Amino acid sequence: MPSPPSLPVSRAAWRSWLLLACVIAYACLLQGVRPLYSPDEGRYTNVALGMLDSGDWMRPMLHPEVEHWSKPPLTYWSIAASFATFGRSEFAARLPGALAFAGAIVLMLRLGRRFVPRQPWLPALVYASFVFPSLAANLVTTDSLLALWEIAQVAVFVELWHAATPQAARRARLLLGLAAGLAFMTKGPPGLLALAACFAFAFWSERGRGLYRTFGWDALLVFLLVGGAWYAVIAWREPGVLRYFVVEEVVNRVASDKMHRNAEWYGAFKVYLPTLLLGSLPWLPLLLAAAWKSRRGALARWRADDQARLLTCWLLLPLAVFVLARSRLPLYVLPLFAPLAILVARALAPLDLHSRGRLTLIALWCAALVLARALPARLDVDEDDRRLARDIAAQLSPVPDEIAFVETAPRFGLRFYLGSTIERLDLPDEPPTPQAENLSTEVLEQEGCRLLAVREDAREALERALTVHEVEWWRLRDARGYALLAEIEGDCAWKAQGTGMTENTPPGAPPAP
């Protein structure tokens, strides 16, 4: 008796759901083991917590008095939503990036059907086992989310380019506008580099007709609604913000050394070359060997291959922008590992995985990448905000309502661990720092229990300024390179813990031994 027609479909659906569960588990395992590190992870979680606590999801804030416009809010929204759903934990902070990594792997499966039809799963396997995308998913930043939207742009463009009906083409154009809008809400103009590569390929292939096929007013409208509505609201409320985005976040990053991020002429080679080479392990040697074997006639094959030209645009156009821009960080090239993975898969397919030894090596490699997420938790790292928070909590009860870092970069991750608001203060006679308050003004405000953290080279200047303003303080034990001074306010009763501060210690004096 023949099987019911629905049985194969059910089995296929079951396999698909099982594969999705495995991908999500691979992306999410051990994401909550490592503590948050400053500066980036602390800053992103701090802004997300500010949105969650204040209820104002439109304005990113480092402190109730300090706005932070360096990035669009989609990453902050995703972290805040994760906290609201799963609680305030390191796992919840990293969950958006982990799910973005999982989503990127799934999209690579989709792209594999077009680029590597003999083994459509191979690009996803390569991308999932690359060093750099896996490690980047363990960082609380915008980059894994951006990589997802850029891969989505190319995946939708490929479907648009091969659409069989006008209805399918229109649907793909709308999805292309959606993906571009989400990328723009994640990191602004850099999120459109994949789309620019698609347009370059379309023009290269069919000139004006190719651009006409790709562009649509309906897709532009979707992009403007998704990617531009927040910018429009903010520009209407605070007109100066739009200029900040254009000047500080675009012009200065591209054309100046203001960000101090490897702007030297050799900076691109110093940052991107090792990132691309080491980050594409363990597959890079196999790719180079395959390219060497097939070097004869490679240029002719490339000229005749539309897919190879699209991959070239996807890889080289953004890379050229990153090289020319004078702000350079390794994570900028994370989206480029997607076309690299497809190039590897095309060069190696068909890859024989029937060997038990080869399967074992791949499994062990992926397990090592997962375990690498937990390894830093056992290391004593200066940027570890959890250790600093424990050192502070061991000396003070209750924990500070506010921790102010004087003449040094704030450790925003302390808000996640202690619940304290975090800000930076400038000493009265020092040049003003962006996004910082002046100490003279701040000490006059009653903001609950305040702890001042300062590096040793500025401690005496801080103590003199506090004496001038008639502010009393307790000196605590130093913690991880910071001198800690607890202000004595009328509405804050610090309680001695027997760890450095005693009831008999005179204000302003070092703690009793």
TrEMBL record:
Topology relative to the membrane: Multi-pass membrane protein
Top-level taxon in the UniProt lineage: Bacteria
InterPro entries: LipidA_mod_glycosyltrf_83, RgtA/B/C-like
Domain (Glycosyltransferase RgtA/B/C/D-like): residue spans on this chain: 70-226
Alphabetized UniProt keyword annotations: Cell membrane, Glycosyltransferase, Membrane, Transferase, Transmembrane, Transmembrane helix
Enzyme Commission numbers on file: 2.4.-.-
Transmembrane segments: 12-33, 91-109, 121-140, 174-203, 215-236, 271-292, 308-325, 331-349, 361-379
One of the Pfam families matching this protein, by short name: PMT_2
Location of this chain's protein in the cell: Cell membrane
GO molecular function, one term: glycosyltransferase activity
PANTHER family: MANNOSYLTRANSFERASE YKCB-RELATED (PTHR33908), UNDECAPRENYL PHOSPHATE-ALPHA-4-AMINO-4-DEOXY-L-ARABINOSE ARABINOSYL TRANSFERASE (PTHR33908:SF3)
Name by which UniProt lists this protein: ArnT family glycosyltransferase
Organism expressing this protein natively: Dokdonella ginsengisoli
